[in-house]
Design brief:
Blueprint: E1 3-8, H1 18-31, E2 36-43, H2 62-65, E3 71-74, H3 85-105, E4 113-118, H4 122-134, E5 137-142, H5 148-152, H6 159-175, E6 178-181, H7 187-193, E7 200-202, E8 223-229, H8 236-248, E9 252-258, H9 262-272, E10 277-280, H10 285-293, E11 297-301, H11 314-321, E12 326-329, H12 333-340, E13 344-346, H13 352-363, H14 366-383, H15 386-389, H16 391-397
Parallel strand pairs: 1-2, 1-4, 2-3, 4-5, 5-6, 6-7, 8-9, 8-11, 9-10, 11-12, 12-13
Helix pairs in contact: 3-4, 11-14
């Protein structure tokens, strides 16, 4: 008997970033299983702005492009993704309402499982309605601890509304049948909110088999890369300092970034004439991995708020996928991942000079870099390949 699954998510192909790529991989790999049929309920791509998705180059996965009957995209009014908190909340409520209406149209499909991805938390509320409509079991996929991450970026701290959010967070965890996390750092927090033990499955991000870099091509020019969001959680001021110092040392620095701080970073480049720093426009995952592959080291940053010590950023796994060792200003889960697998070096996020000194040391130590690259390849292939890890989710459904 075929098991029918509905994935509910705001982020889905071709949306750039690890969230959209994660949900695409789950969609494809579950559909590849015998006895499974998987559909998606998502929004039209809009992050970081809707207009960029008029570029056909971003729709580069023909296998997904052919699955139009399985993908329901809800139109949204916002042409740009606003960072103003109240605008963002209205945006999320609109998505919740539109998802709610669409679920009634999909009632005839009689889904056995709903897999809903959070944040935002509001989509989960519409999934609760869907579970009742379909008589389905609910798999809650947690990609971020919310509202703690909201407080961590200091975007919003209204005490009354935060109390409401915390109440909804607790209800969300307690009403799920299964919980899937992409970072082990989330588990203790979630368990503390539960009133009884329930299955929590660790399903990390990672590469598909065909994305693995087996032979790193060496080039003459030494280069460093930052790939990922330029937002409130990533401590862009420290990234600016890194850019200036690398430029002063005549080291090429590629920035493959997007997000609300991108224009601020571009202004720094113009005003300081940082000719060794090259910023790239958002592009497909395939092209992004190719840029990372051609870099010698990867930079990662998160700000010092405690909630971010639980996060395992997708960029760190992308660096390891491309055999690009990491120099990072992170702590907690991400720091443990890098140091325990010897795939790079970790510093306090404000230790900019120490990070630069390590980069200069590695620039002149090919043997050490080669060893770090091998560790990246070994770690990613043995623990983070999607085709291997998807079995954890298949086991739940079957």
């Amino acid at each position: 008997m075929t098991k029918k699954v509905l994935i509910m998510t705001q982020n889905f192909y071709p949306v750039i970033g690890s969230a959209g790529n994660r949900m695409k991989n789950i969609f494809q790999l579950l559909n590849d299983q015998k006895g499974m049929e998987v559909h998606v309920l998502t929004t039209e791509p809009a992050y970081p702005n809707k207009s960029m998705y008029s570029n056909d180059d971003l729709w580069d996965d023909e296998a997904v492009n052919r699955e139009t009957e399985k993908i329901n995209r809800i139109p949204i009014k916002n042409k740009r993704f606003s960072n103003h908190i109240f605008s963002r909340l209205f945006f999320y409520v609109e998505i919740m309402y539109r998802f709610f209406l669409k679920l009634f149209e999909l009632k005839k499909n009689k889904y056995d499982y709903i897999l809903v991805s959070t944040p935002p938390i509001f989509i989960v509320l519409s999934a609760f309605i869907g579970r009742r409509l379909f008589g389905a079991k609910l798999i809650l996929e947690v990609r971020d601890l919310w509202p703690d991450s909201l407080l961590g970026v200091k975007a919003f701290d209204h005490p009354f509304i935060i109390r409401i959010f915390r109440y909804l967070e607790k209800k969300m965890y307690r009403n799920a049948d299964y919980i899937v996390i992409n970072s082990k750092g989330f588990e203790d927090h979630i368990v503390s909110k539960l009133n009884k033990r329930k299955p929590i499955i660790y399903l990390p991000n990672g590469p598909r088999i065909n994305e693995l870099v087996k032979d790193k091509v060496k080039k003459e020019e030494f280069s460093v890369i930052y790939a990922g969001n330029l937002g409130l959680a990533q401590d862009v001021n420290r990234l600016k300092s890194i850019a200036i110092l690398l430029n002063n040392h005549n080291i090429r620095f590629d920035v493959l970034g997007y997000g609300i701080k991108t224009n601020e970073f571009k202004t720094l480049l113009r005003e300081n004439k940082l000719n060794n720093v090259h910023i790239h426009e958002p592009t497909t995952r395939k092209k992004s991995l190719n840029i990372i592959k051609n870099s010698d080291l990867g930079i990662a940053f998160l700000n010092d708020e405690e909630v971010f010590s639980t996060v395992l950023p997708g960029k760190i796994l992308d660096y390891m996928t491309c055999q690009t060792p990491i120099v990072a200003g992170v702590k907690g889960t991400a720091a443990d991942m890098i140091t325990s697998n010897k795939t790079g070096f970790v510093f306090d996020s404000d230790s900019i000079d120490a990070m630069i000194n390590k980069i200069l040391e590695l620039k002149n130590d090919k043997q050490q870099v080669d060893m770090l690259e091998e560790n990246c390849y070994y770690t990613i292939t043995n623990r983070f390949v999607w085709e291997n890890n998807i079995d954890k989710l298949v086991e739940i459904i079957k």
